[in-house]
What does this fold into?
Amino acid sequence: MVAPDHPARSAGTPPRRGGESVTAPSPAGIHLAQLPPLALYVHIPWCVKKCPYCDFNSHSARGELPEREYVAALLADLERSLPDVWGRRVGSIFFGGGTPSLFSAQSIDALVSAFRARLPLAADCEITLEANPGTFEAEKFRGYRAAGVNRLSIGIQSFNPKHLAALGRIHDEAEARRAIEIAQQSFDNINLDLMYALPRQTPEEAAADVEEALGAGTAHLSFYHLTLEPNTLFHRHPPPLPDDDTAAAMQDRVAERLAQAGYVHYEISAYARPGRECRHNLNYWRFGDYLGIGAGAHSKISFAERVMRSARCQQPKEYLQRAAAGAAVQESHEVGRADLVFEFMLNALRLAEGFPVGLFAERTGLQIAVAEKPLREAEVRGLIVRDHQRICPTELGQRFLNDLLQLFLPA
Ligand SMILES: C[S@@+](CC[C@H](N)C(=O)[O-])C[C@H]1O[C@@H](n2cnc3c(N)ncnc32)[C@H](O)[C@@H]1O
Ligand code: SF4
It folds into this structure.
């Protein structure tokens, strides 16, 4: 599974048509003593070709990309949003997609420089860019590094040619290996995305992918269980997938092998060498704030008395027009009390370390007592453990995360 709160997932609040809409103020009646850390997400909505399993807001690139116009639109979008985050320090930036590596190093450089000029970036700001094998060469990677990108996330998915073909990827296993090799010439902080439970994949084949990913020795590995998402080709025409028990056994094997190799399993799908966890994603999971700019990007921004969510329009062409007119945001609403509880748990309980009890009040402006009933039930069912300091999902809770989260669903 991919983080449900990912700011580029197509799912989530459907944007309403006909301009920005804002719901009546103050349903939550909260007070935040301090604002959460802030991250910036930048969405690049094009790919060479749409993958049949993907429900991210990504569109096949037909002809030349309107790269210059899009950079201008992103900056107009940011300018318009600045008053909402005025003076707040940005701890991480994430160029996600889509396929950001379709953009030139010059465009990324122009964006990072413009961000620096408009927002106070932390001295150690983590700046990640998602790159797809088959869409860059060594020179481009050097350019990204020079632009200030200090972390690369490469979409490998599998090293097996049969599975790459079944997933409709544009790259083969040789390009996957080459991508890692040339990335390592410019970056020491690299994540590889892989998926398991692929069409007709055997446990041995999944294990071979794990070994090859480990062999690359990168700081971070993400292993996602391939899911059939609505509105994808795979959902309409499901391929033959391993059954649930086989998929669970694959996941156990991934986790065991990576633990043996010294990786910390800190979130359902994320493994890092100690200290190399993805700060940007940790901020989502700790219910931090994020400003998402770009087509279809989502934001969560807190103010002293309310938490707001908003979404930009999804279609790149419409986004270009609306951003230029200062109207990229299509929908915006205040998060109500019950949703604050659910959304906090949805994120924080994905983390193996859970959360310090005080973080709940810090991020939601509500007392933890409002969640006492579902917390007690989760404890009785062995899905969490807690003391006065910390609340953690148990192994059972992590395995049956959906059951655990359901307890917090608003009535
Ligand atoms: C934003 S996506 C795409 C990044 C990049 N464009 C790529 O495809 O390499 C990030 C990751 O989500 C994972 N992903 C996408 N769709 C998925 C699905 N249906 N099930 C599980 N993981 C998925 C893939 O591993 C992908 O690399
Ligand atoms: S390349 Fe990545 S973002 Fe694009 S369609 Fe495929 S999985 Fe989705």
